[in-house]
Design brief:
Blueprint: E1 4-9, H1 15-24, E2 38-41, E3 46-51, H2 56-62, E4 67-71, H3 72-78, E5 83-87, E6 93-100, E7 116-119, H4 122-131, E8 137-140, E9 156-161, H5 165-169, E10 172-181, E11 183-187, H6 189-194, H7 196-213, E12 215-223, H8 227-233, E13 241-245, E14 248-259, H9 263-272, E15 276-282
Amino acid sequence: MSTLRIALPNKGRLNSSAVRLMNRIGFQVPDSNSRTLLAEFGKGRYQVLMARAQDIPEFVEMGAADIGITGLDLVMETRRDVKRLMDLDFGRCRLVVAVPEESGVRDASGVPDGCAVATSFPNLTKEFFGGLGKDVSPAEVSGATEIAPRIGLADVIVDLTETGSTLKLNHLREVGVVLESVAVLIANPRSVEEKRLSIEEVANAFGSVMNASKKRYIMANVPKDKLQTLTTLVPGVSGPTVMNIMGRDDLVAIHAVTNEDEVNGVIAMLKGIGAAGILVMPIDRMVL
């Protein structure tokens, strides 16, 4: 079987989460402090290439990598011919239009024609304002976009934000959303055909980790006469698993999966029907 090459961000906001995801499926990828750019796993079946997130769409399109993790914003900006396989559960942010707090512009449609817009995303910026019937002039910058209005480079910016706190710190106000972004797994279209099984193996592994990340495994000893109540209290994946306890006719052991944010309520309800020995554990992988 030929080697599947996977491109990961070597630094930046996506790096640690991408590396953590790879570690959870069994690939002990070097962290961002390592000088290793290419590592092999699975007796040569897989290679991991560390690259800049903005270069990954190009690398995947050209076949330097078969699949890669990068931001949807970068895929849309670079407009590379890649296949979007799945959205991942990290890297959520928004590409927004922002103006100085004292600006009279209240909405992106109020940005005047010919306005200079500082951004690292000139293609998305032109496309967004074109959709509003506006002809703006992107002033391309590679970083620190939020200081552009203060140094007179532009009166408007288009930049990524997660919480909006950096915008506020720089006395900027959001007036429009260009794109809702997230980390995505992308693939070279030819690789999807030629290395389908290997790609599906990795994608399914990612899916099993994401399925498990917000679930918890619950075990408890429950009075046998309360079993009918369990299907509503602890639904699980296909219903709770019930097992006999050696030497006890009055109790059964139940195993179930529940949402992480519902655990405290489930524990309270279990205690309410007389359950004991309640254990809650994280789930490493969950294949649905």
